[in-house]
Specification:
Distance between the termini: 66 Å
Largest sheet: 3 strands, antiparallel
Strand order of the largest sheet: 1-2-3
Shape: rod-shaped
Radius of gyration: 25 Å
Number of helices: 3
Structural class: alpha+beta
Length: 107
């Protein structure tokens, strides 16, 4: 017995859900008969709630897999100088600039 909302009843009387969504050009398909805790889905409402939780978890999972852009050490240091050094003491900034100029930049 299939329904339009992605949940269906299995032959043994329990419920299951399925979904297929597209996130950032990648298709994620899941089909399960249990919730996040491993409990069997005994009612249609439980299946709907588990499906909604699984879709949310898939979105969160894909957000965590964002690509890390490759940058040079110089670009990272310049960004730190612009955004990360506000509120630091003057001598700290001088020391960091000195370390960069005398030791790190040449490498």
């Amino acid at each position: 017995m299939a329904t339009k909302d992605g949940v269906y009843q299995t032959e043994n009387g329990l419920w299951a859900y399925r979904f297929s969504i597209l996130i950032d050009g990648k298709r994620i398909s899941r089909k399960k008969t249990t919730d996040d805790y491993g409990n069997k889905l005994k009612t249609r409402t439980a299946a709907l709630k588990a499906r909604a939780a699984a879709i949310t978890a898939a979105h969160v999972e894909m957000e965590g897999k964002r690509k890390i852009s490759r940058r040079t050490v110089k670009e990272v240091f310049e960004e730190y100088c612009e955004k990360g050094r506000t509120g630091k003491m003057y001598n700290t900034n001088l020391k960091q600039d000195s370390l960069w100029k005398n030791h790190l930049c040449s490498r």
